Amino acid sequence: MNKLMIMAAIGVATAGCQTAVPQSVADTQRPPSKALKTAIVNAARDFLLDPYSIRDAEISNVVLFNPQARIDAVCIKANAKNGYGGYTGRQATSVSLRDGKILGATANDVRCLDPRLGYHPFKELESLKSL
Fold first, then answer.
1. CA quadruple 43, 44, 50, 53: dihedral positive or negative?
2. Residue 129 CA: distances (Å) to CA of 47, 49, 51, 62, 92
3. pLDDT tens digits, residue range 33-49?
4. Could you tell me the sign of the dihedral formed by the alpha carbons of 68, 72, 77, 82, in that order?
5. Continuous H helices in the chain
6. How far is the C-alpha of 107 from the C-alpha of 92, rounded, in Å?
7. Helix, strand or coil for residue 105?
8. With bands split at pLDDT 50, 70 and 90, how would you rate the model's confidence at 76?
9. pTM, two decimal places
10. Beta partners for 30?
11. What is the mean pLDDT of the chain?
12. Residue 27 pLDDT > 90, yes or no?
């Protein structure tokens, strides 16, 4: 009961503040920049076994993942061939970023399945097959 009263008091106390604090990570969404898309396409050449086989690619909006560390994240969903030459089905990979630079990637990240996360076609990644 005390927690509920404290939370209500904090909500009332901050209701008049000028700067709004995002309600969730999903509230920080912004479209990925062209530079970020280019960086991801270039990294895909080294990260994937067969980057030239990519199809059904989508990129999510960029979200603020860790405000204290200034880390953003973006998700990529795509279907590519594995080491045996067969398609794996669409996999979701999160890419961690700081100041627009790629820090790392996590394959099969469940956070990329959040229905609040907006996705866009990622034709630039699919166009690797044309090279």
1. negative
2. 15, 13, 8, 25, 19
3. 999 999 999 999 888 88
4. negative
5. 2-14, 34-47, 123-126
6. 6
7. strand
8. very high
9. 0.77
10. 62
11. 83
12. no
